[in-house]
Amino acid sequence: MEYCGVSSVQNLEALSALLSTQQEEEEDEDCRNAAACAHLGPGHIGPPSKKENEVSSAYMKKNSKDIWSEDEVSEGSQYDDVIDSRPQPEYEIILKQSVGTEDLFLGLSRKDPSSMCCEAMLVKIKLPDTKATEVVLDVKEKFLDLRTPKYKLGLHLPHPVHSQEGKAQFFSEREELEVTLLMKRPLDFINMQ
């Protein structure tokens, strides 16, 4: 009996050593490439689907740091000029809403301070050493194009606007152009205008 007990203990120890070395080798193989380990997550449990393989191969073919393609930004891409070395002026976008006493004190129109309740967009553009006659401004539904002899600004707007209903005013003492644009909003229970 001792012979059987000794041999079974030796067999178990040998099996344990064999399995532990195989497990360590598998862990080393899986994590040799740090990038391969970094992109794995809970969604990678189970067999890979065909769709995941297609997406990853399409992403690999792109091999670029672009966050969107030119197809996704249709309006305004014709204004992009790589050769033009004019700097972009400083600008600021401010969302505005019309608020009356019935909104402020009684809350009758259901407006809140969120951007979904804003009706207009104010774009302030600083144009140092520029005259009002030198400014060329073109506004599309989702793009604002401003050109002066010293500056060039191609601005993709965060919301669609009514391009024909805007207003621009140049303040020479501040050397600043203010463009007020009315936003296109879907009619819902907040924007009932």
UniProtKB/TrEMBL annotation:
TM regions (residue ranges): none
Coiled coil feature spans: none
Domain of life (superkingdom): Eukaryota
Molecular function, one GO term: protein-folding chaperone binding
Alphabetical list of InterPro entries matching this protein: DNAAF6 (IPR026697), PIH1D1/2/3_CS-like (IPR041442)
Segments forming domain PIH1D1/2/3 CS-like: 88-182
Cellular component GO terms, alphabetical: cytoplasm
Gene Ontology biological process terms, A to Z: axonemal dynein complex assembly; flagellated sperm motility
Protein family (similarity comment): Belongs to the PIH1 family.
PANTHER family cross-referenced by the UniProt entry: DYNEIN AXONEMAL ASSEMBLY FACTOR 6 (PTHR21083:SF0), TWISTER (PTHR21083)
Protein's recorded name: Dynein axonemal assembly factor 6
Protein source organism: Stegastes partitus (bicolor damselfish)
Source organism phylogeny: Eukaryota, Metazoa, Chordata, Craniata, Vertebrata
